[in-house]
Amino acid sequence: METRKAQLRAAKRRQRQREQQAGRAVYQVKLPVALCDRLKAGMKNADFVAHFEAFLQHALIRVADYPNLELFCWNLDLRYMTREDAFHLYERNWRMVDERNLDENEAVLIRELMDEFGRGLINA
Fold first, then answer.
1. How confident is the model over 54-82, as pLDDT tens digits?
2. How far apart are the first and last CA of the chain?
3. How far apart are CA 62 and CA 82, in angstroms?
4. CA atoms within 13 A on the CB side of 84
5. Spatial separation of the C-alpha atoms in residues 36 and 43, rounded to whole Å
6. Maximum distance among all Cα pairs of the chain, rounded to whole angstroms
7. 110-116 LR contacts (CB < 8 Å, sep 24+)
8. pLDDT digits (tens, 9 = 90+) for 96-121
9. Could you give the 3-state DSSP secondary structure of residue 95?
10. DSSP secondary structure, 15-78, as one string
11. Cα–Cα distance between 13 and 33 in angstroms, integer?
12. What is the pTM of this model?
């Protein structure tokens, strides 16, 4: 019996390694049952997955892509943050942003965030 348990553990370990090499990970999350059922059904459809990825691409900002934002997050263990959280972080730390040397991608992001959350302004 102990040998069978060891075999199952080894098989599970190999499966996790294959998934990791394929760039896949399991993330367990608690959702309301109805939402979980809808998500499971949607994940079987390639179009749904593409829309879901596009939503996440828009809704979450990769911190490392924006130098000032990354600087503001020096004490946080974050890879991604919501657009609204990023806006508030820029707003709180605006005095430290060197607008003359602002990266073009970051300038575009800040303008988008200002329009989306600040009615075109940053309250600095």
1. 999 999 999 999 999 999 999 999 999 99
2. 67
3. 9
4. 1
5. 11
6. 69
7. 112/83, 113/83, 113/86, 113/87, 114/87, 116/83, 116/87
8. 988 888 899 999 999 999 999 988 88
9. helix
10. HHHHHHHTT---------HHHHHHHHHHTTSHHHHHHHHHHHHHHEEEGGGSHHHHHHTTTS--
11. 29
12. 0.75
- Contact between 90 and 61 under an 8 Å Cβ cutoff? The reply is no
Q: Which tokens hold the place of 121?
A: 């302004």
Sign of the four-CA dihedral 124, 88, 103, 78: positive
- Residue holding tokens 């080894």? 10
